[in-house]
Amino acid sequence: MDPIGVGIVGYGLAGRSFHAPFVEAVDGLWLEAVVTTDPERRARATAEHPGAAIFESVEEMLARTDIEVVVVATPNRLHVPIGLRVFAAGRHVVVDKPIAMDVREAETLIDAATRSGRLLSVYQNRRWDGDFLTVRRLISEGVLGPIDSLESRFERLSRVGPEWRESGQEAAGPLRDLGAHLVDQSVILFGPARRVWAQLDRRRPATEVDDSTFVAIDHESGVRSRLWMSVIASHVGPRIRLRGVNGEYVKDDLDVQEAQLVGGMLPSSPGFGDEPGERSGRLYRPDGAMSPIPTERGRYIAFYELLRDAIRGLGPVPVDPIDSLRVLRVLIAAEVAAKTGTVQTMGDV
Fold it and tell me: What is the per-residue DSSP string for 192-203?
């Protein structure tokens, strides 16, 4: 079977570290082209992917007939405009999260996918974090008993910048960036949000975006999620704290894949996605007993394996865009809740 040609639009951190390595690692996919307007990034893409064509415009790339799917790894405001152009050219689309700037944009993109008969998926890669896979296993096995609550954090320390991450016009900031992952994970685990409350603050001098964020979600299932997203954390809290009636799982450290990718490690390298045993989470029992819980192997590569299969008609897309639309609605509800000091009921959003 011929490989599926892939084009990537954007060669910043996302395109270079989170997409290109996996496209090249998955049997049945082939990186045909990269689009970037930045001269330094064009030179870097040329050196790192000598078999791919490097273009300055989406139109140049779409003139190629050997590209079946286009990955949009650009700043947020460009996800939908570029996605619509790609659908008009009859190609499949992957967009980075968040799916769009607002609900209307997201619905427009989903409708364009339906009308074109092409596939649309959203790169919610942290569905394949090792810690999240471990949590899903613990819940499915009933290890913790009935679940009371989830505490989940993506916290880091960042200077002000780069420019697009500090722009209100980009709907930037950790809520839309990191929160898109945390909300997605919580909804996968516990079902739709019923009510949302949030606090958003700007703490760094000269920042134009909310950089310290807390979101509370009451799920229709009765479970409560408490989510923290921050870029002012000099010391981070536990990555995950999952409390059940019969026990509590606590995991301190982030999944290893991001650091491995940024450090230049390839998905095909031995040990990719494997976490050292000393970073394992811990299971605490009501009787005071504690036991380590080895972390599942992280598998971001699964997204592109499932995408390949979906294009070949062998299964659904790895992330249903309707899921990402629901996540966007929760993020917007959080913004409204923080601005108005109210609890947002999702049926009213």
Answer: -EEEEEEEEE--
Beta bridge partners of 291: 283
Alpha-carbon span 53 to 239, nearest angstrom: 39
Segment 177-223, tens digit of pLDDT: 999 999 999 999 999 999 999 999 999 888 888 889 999 999 999 99
**Residue with token string 């999952």:** 242
Q: How far, in whole angstroms, is CA 333 from its chain's centroid? A: 19
Q: Which of 63, 60, 53 is nearest to 33 (CA)?
A: 53
Residues 337, 195: contact at Cβ < 8 Å? Answer: no
CA–CA dist 208, 171 (Å, integer): 10
Opening angle at CA 204, ends 202 and 206, nearest 5: 95
Q: Is the pTM of this model over 0.85?
A: yes
Point out which residues pair with 48 in neighbouring strands.
none
Say what the alpha-carbon torsion angle 258, 261, 262, 263 is, to the nearest 10 degrees: 120
Tokens describing residue 314: 């062998």
C-alpha to C-alpha distance for 6 and 68, rounded to whole angstroms: 6
**Per-residue pLDDT tens digits for 84-132:** 999 999 999 999 999 999 999 999 999 999 999 999 999 999 999 999 9
Residue 276 burial (C-beta neighbours within 10 Å; 0-12, 13-18, 19+): exposed
Query: In Å, what is the CA distance from 282 to each residue of 248, 292, 293?
Result: 8, 4, 5
